[in-house]
Amino acid sequence: MTLTLDFLSDMDTLLAVYEKAGQQPDNLCGPYWVAMLLKAYGGFSESVVDVAKAASTILPSHGHPSDWLPTGATSRMGEGYDTIPTVSDVNQCGTSVDGLIQAAEMLSQGEFCLLPLQTEDWEVGLDRLVQIGHAHLDWGMVPLLNVHTNYFWSSRLSPFDVVQFLQTGTQPSTSPDWSVGHFAVLVGHLQGENHQLYAILDTYPQFGWNGLHLQSPEAIAQSLLRPQQSTQGGILLFINSKDKSQVQEVMVQHGFRIASWDNGTPFCPP
User: Fold this and answer.
1) Tens-binned pLDDT, residue by residue, of the chain (270 aa)
2) Which of 264, 233, 241, 230 is nearest to 117 (CA)?
3) Do 219 and 225 touch, CB atoms closer than 8 A?
4) Are 115 and 239 in contact, with CB atoms under 8 Å apart?
5) pTM of the full predicted structure?
């Protein structure tokens, strides 16, 4: 059996920054990624808290970390965390998609942007996105997935589970490690002879292999579509702003809609 793990674009640059960053601060997965992407590809030094404030992130005003942390993670906040606005309704907490789009453009002074992508068929869309990424390596695009982890497989698949799925498409009997709206990066895919798995980089090193885990096309598609959920998901494509018009044109040609979505957190800029 031949396996090929293909990374999208210049992922080595992001991985080098990721290895030093460690676990995300509590409830700041979206700002965590934007801060890291701006640092990796633009040399910007804005902190996760800086991004959170620029994105109008909302934190819970009460509760215990066990209410929002995955199993095995310890609470992490960091300098300036207490300056982020809070609200009593935990269901309203988080970072909106529009907030992240605003923060990325503002903090990079227009050099980088996040292009919001939607489609009716995410399995097809993900495959097309990977193909576009390989065809346009010069764009250096990084897909930031806004998922609901309830639809994921366990991040700790056995080698047998991986090989069996890639050969036969048989899904392992696993349950998700976590159930929450979340941001993670699609870094590549593992191609078998008959099936493929996507490689996801997470904000918690406890997941998978130091944060890197494998998910099926169906699992990721469901995590983006979020059936039976009141919230929505999608992909924010991190790109250089100079390529935006060209990237947007190609994405539309391949069946994507350029549109934001409601992930459950209101966008309330100051």
Assistant:
1) 556 678 887 888 999 999 999 999 999 999 999 999 999 999 999 999 999 999 999 999 888 777 788 888 899 998 999 999 998 887 788 999 999 999 999 999 999 999 999 999 999 999 999 999 999 999 999 999 999 999 999 999 999 999 999 989 998 988 899 999 999 999 999 988 889 999 999 999 999 999 999 999 999 999 999 999 999 999 999 999 999 999 999 999 999 999 999 999 988 776
2) 233
3) no
4) yes
5) 0.95
